[in-house]
Amino acid sequence: MMRAKSALAWAALTFIVGAPIAVAATSPYLAWRDPIYIIAGFAGIAALALMVVQPLLVAGYLPGVARPTGRRWHKWVGITLLGAVILHVVGLWITSPPDVVDALLLVSPTPFSVWGVAAMWLIIAAAVLVWMRRRLPLRSQTWRRVHTSLVGAALVGTVLHALLIVGTMGTISKWMLCLVAIVVSVKVIWDLRIWQWRRS
Amino acid sequence: MSQSGKVSRRRLLRTGGAVVATTLVGLAVPARAQGVAPTPSMRGGSNNYRPGAPIVERIGGGGFWMTGTVRRAGDGAPLANQRIQIWAHTTEGHERDPQSHGATLTDSNGEFRLEMPQIVPAFGQPHGHLAYDSGDFKTVFLRPIMNSARDKTLAAHFVLQPV
After folding, report:
1. pLDDT in the model for residue B13
2. ipTM score of the complex?
3. Which of A14, A28, A154, B126 lies in the 20 to 30 Å Cα band around B79?
4. What is the distance in angstroms between the Cα of B151 and the nearest Cα belonging to chain A?
5. Any idea what the CATH number is for the domain that residue A144 is in?
6. Distances in Å between the alpha carbon of A22 and those of A85, A117, A120, A130?
7. Domain span including residue A11
8. Across the interface, do A102 and B124 touch by the CB < 8 Å criterion?
């Protein structure tokens, strides 16, 4: 019974993360894009997908990945996520430098760019916070609240960025991935009592 | 979306203004739109611009139409023989690729039409780029957005200011 439950949980996660990527992989637009542009696009989708995994890991909700292990994985997946964001931006910059320069300078004509750029800086800030953790005079709960605020805002920015884009992602699988990422994050923030809205 | 919305609003106002003017002046007199404002360049309009694109019959294999008008600021008179440069991310190349660029001239009504390959969404929006950059009037870069990625045509309108 436990094993069946665990298999089901992993299957559900594989579907939620894998389906949007699989749908995007069948997009007709890919035929008219250079490899570096395709890599950049999928790096963005991967970063969004990893945002579903991150709260599950830190909370130890994945069967077989209990909390100490989950938190270790959370760190490595976080580094991967940061790498995916960098690959996304660099790949787009190689594809069309002026469009990326406009986005980074916040003068892009596309409304989604500003959300993407905001999410990028928030993720970088969250990563710096992790790197500086031991050197910062923050109580662990305060540190956790700052980290959660940064990545939570990054998730909101990423979701708005993704939903406003006409690209390779399928509409339904994109919305599903975004909704699941938000629901999972809210649940984990609640369960871990990052802010003590409720008494223990 | 908002960009193309702006164009249609402008068009609506322009058409409405012309109708009112025609009615007031009398139907025998051609419409005279007073004080037509010059078109400002759009954000990102000049991205991946390659000056001096050749005048072509059509860009690549065609199948998609870029259309529009060119008029003079102030009196709104149509401008003939104006060179409009066009480029986009299409089924035949990225915006930066030379084969994605071409130019055409306006006819005696100030209208232009250039066949080009199908525009496909790139950098999040299905959009095209157009430039007036010939020196007689102030340079204008436009970046119209298609309502749907399946559209087979896209329009952009220039009102140019003499230098």
Report:
1. 60
2. 0.89
3. B126
4. 14
5. 1.20.120
6. 19, 25, 24, 32
7. 2-191
8. no
